[in-house]
Automatic annotation (TrEMBL):
InterPro entries in UniProt: Ig-like_fold
UniProt KW Signal keyword: yes
Signal sequence, start to end: 1-20
Species whose genome carries this gene: Ferrimonas marina
Protein name per UniProt: Uncharacterized protein
Keyword Signal: yes
Length: 658
């Protein structure tokens, strides 16, 4: 494009002004340390930058290891000997020294490592690490741990064997969806190779904060390191914290390095252009170097990332899958546990349904509900997963706040724990004030027949009261109106526990509804519990007053459902139980008929039964009210769908209370 003759003089004046300003600052004789000729910045300051990032990465790796260890041991108590990514071995124990079953001052986390490659470290670790918890502060959902870590019992292997002396003081602050780490060495730490001193880190402080909702990290450090091989001492100070989105290069931040005998140099990040590069800056001179040549990835990495050296360049339009944060639960995954999926940007919505799928036949799909908290998704199955089986999260589509979309796939499997198996059975998933279901923990068990303890509790906050909160069977008295969520916790004699939950719907105001409970693998209900009421759709009575042996009801909303019943012998339907029912309208003479279908799904064959509790017609035979419970096995299935239908009646839902 040609310059406009109107704007050209203005552009020229601005250019001259900027040149004058730059000359007055950069080329001033008042800055004698800045060379007039372009220096070789990376060659001159590369060793200082390497020393800075070496100690920053190592110190923060120990802090991140504390964070990982705490999350795992606080949930599962110990880690049996397991195989590391390189084939080495790792085990870990939580020493609960006061027996409180809560992390407290005086407790210890101990790791034993045999040539183990951990995700946070560039080196292979051999030996043991003991995290000694000196102080714990807890306030509501916030927790702060102060920890001391000795370094003399660990060997770092990286083309040779390296050892450290002295100890670290670590502080870890945990708040919902956010954690902050601080590492301080109050005394100098020496790195030895073949018993020869190679590096000395003088008292220094490093910090890292990860905000899962913002999908953002921040890292900083200040101190002094001596590189004895290169006979160089480097002071470093963070001008601006390194900042960026998770698994992306920093797009903000700068640090000033001052090697002994040399003028300071600034290391600085880039925005969009060259964001994979770090700048060496001195006055007007700039040289660029690859970030991956400087850092091993501790800056941008979070727990669950298996490839920290594959970050993305920064762009405002980025949206990617980062990690499954609680992947460490594989093998100990709770049967109704929440999977935490971290994305690289906050999202607005999920466009498709979310479900878990078994990885081997018989294939089952379990629906899940999702909670969106910025870039963090918490995904929980709507009903328990099967203990001992392996599942994966099905892919789904998410839309970011920045307008981009992403097909999210974790590409990882997880196995559900079978150490403790809670089994919660409710008479139904519905209740009214004076019509509540019985609850049972029958079938709950622990591996190898260990004794178990039962605990019923409310997750919602309605004020319900359990009749026998520590017994196998219980009832309850509802509190305030509204749906309730209950939990069953089962604990074995070793202190291992697992929890299962269920939501009970308040049906106090509904005289028209269909409720069904479909187990995993059942075709019509797709393994879901559904409550379809006149608040969300409408009922149509398709019964013919001249055919009193048949009742046909239809429910319409965005998806359609229908229930057909027939006596089978030509006599009018009446209150009572009808057993041996087959698929209506293909049931043979003398066989009752039943057919529950919906959302375009139907059965080829049906075996089942139904019981009519209430049936009212007017003088002309028109249906006025119906209360019926039904059971249906679809196409020779082994697990039945069980349902309830109420039409113009408040007839009790939960009958034969235990």
């Amino acid at each position: 494009m040609r310059d406009s003759p109107v704007h050209k003089p203005l552009a020229l004046l601005l250019s001259l002004s900027l040149l004058a300003a730059c000359s007055s600052e950069s080329d001033s004789p008042d800055n004698p340390d800045i060379p007039d000729e372009k220096p070789e910045l990376e060659r001159t300051y590369g060793p200082a930058a390497s020393a800075y990032f070496d100690v920053l990465d190592r110190q923060l790796s120990f802090a991140e290891l504390l964070h990982d260890t705490h999350l795992q041991l606080a949930q599962i108590g110990h880690i049996e000997e397991s195989i590391c990514s390189n084939g080495g071995l790792l085990s870990a124990q939580w020493h609960d020294n006061d027996g409180s079953e809560a992390v407290s001052a005086g407790d210890q986390y101990q790791l034993h490592l045999r040539d183990c490659q951990l995700p946070w470290f560039a080196e292979v670790l051999d030996g043991s690490l003991l995290f000694e918890i000196t102080e714990v502060e807890s306030q509501q959902q916030d927790q702060t741990l102060s920890v001391q870590l000795g370094l003399s019992d660990i060997v770092l292997k990286d083309g040779g064997e390296y050892q450290l002396d002295n100890h670290l003081e670590l502080t870890m602050r945990l708040t919902p969806n956010r954690y902050a780490l601080e590492v301080h060495n109050p005394e100098a730490i020496t790195l030895y190779h073949r018993f020869e001193e190679e590096q000395i880190l003088q008292p220094s402080t490093f910090g890292k904060t990860v905000d899962s909702e913002r999908a953002f990290y921040q890292v900083q450090g200040s101190g002094e390191v001596q590189d004895l091989l290169k006979q160089q001492t480097v002071q470093f100070q963070q001008s601006t914290p390194w900042q960026g989105y998770l698994m992306e290069y920093p797009h903000q931040g700068a640090a000033e390095l001052t090697p002994q005998g040399l003028p300071p140099v600034t290391l600085a990040s880039n925005f969009v252009v060259d964001s994979r590069m770090i700048n060496f800056q001195q006055g007007q001179w700039v040289e660029k170097s690859q970030w991956l040549n400087r850092s091993q990835g501790v800056l941008w990495r979070v727990p669950g990332v298996t490839s920290p050296n594959n970050p993305r360049e920064y762009k405002a339009s980025n949206l990617q899958f980062v990690a499954q944060l609680n992947a460490y639960l594989n093998g100990a995954y709770p049967i109704q546990g929440t999977m935490q999926v971290q994305l690289s940007r906050p999202i607005e919505r999920i466009a498709t349904s979310v479900s878990f799928r078994t990885t081997q036949s018989p294939f089952d799909y379990i629906d899940a509900h999702s909670i969106i908290e910025g870039g963090l998704l918490s995904i929980t199955p709507t009903r328990p997963l099967e203990p001992g089986r392996t599942y994966q999260l099905e892919s789904f589509v998410a839309y970011g706040e920045n307008g981009t979309s992403l097909s999210v796939s974790t590409r990882s499997n997880f196995t559900v724990s079978d150490q403790v198996v809670p089994v919660l059975t409710a008479q139904s998933g519905l209740f009214r004030v004076d019509d509540t279901p019985w609850l049972s923990a029958k079938g709950s068990h622990a591996k190898e027949g260990e004794a178990i303890d039962i605990e019923w509790f409310e997750i919602s906050d309605t004020g319900l009261v359990f009749e026998t909160p520590t017994e196998l069977h219980t009832g309850f008295t509802p509190g305030r109106p509204g749906d309730i969520e209950i939990g069953l916790r089962v604990t074995n004699e070793l202190g291992q526990s697992d929890t299962v939950t269920q939501t009970l719907r308040d049906a106090a105001d509904d005289q028209r509804f269909i409720y069904f409970d479909s187990p995993a693998g059942e075709y019509i209900g797709q393994g879901k519990r559904r409550y379809l009421s006149s608040r969300d759709g409408y009922f149509t009575n398709n019964s013919n007053s001249e055919q009193l042996d048949t009742i046909r009801l239809r429910y319409d909303n965005d998806r359609n459902w229908s229930l057909d019943l027939q006596s089978g012998d030509g006599t009018p339907l009446r209150e009572g139980r009808y057993e041996g029912a087959t698929r209506y309208p293909f049931n043979r003479d003398g066989e009752p008929g039943v057919n529950f279908s919906g959302e375009g799904r139907g059965c080829n064959t049906i075996n089942g039964e139904f019981e009519i509790h209430q049936l009212q017609r007017d003088a002309h035979g028109n249906l006025l009210a119906l209360a019926v419970d039904y059971t249906q096995y679809c196409s020779n299935g082994t697990e039945p769908l069980r349902g309830k239908l109420r039409y113009n009646t408040d007839y009790p839902i939960n009958l034969n209370h235990r």
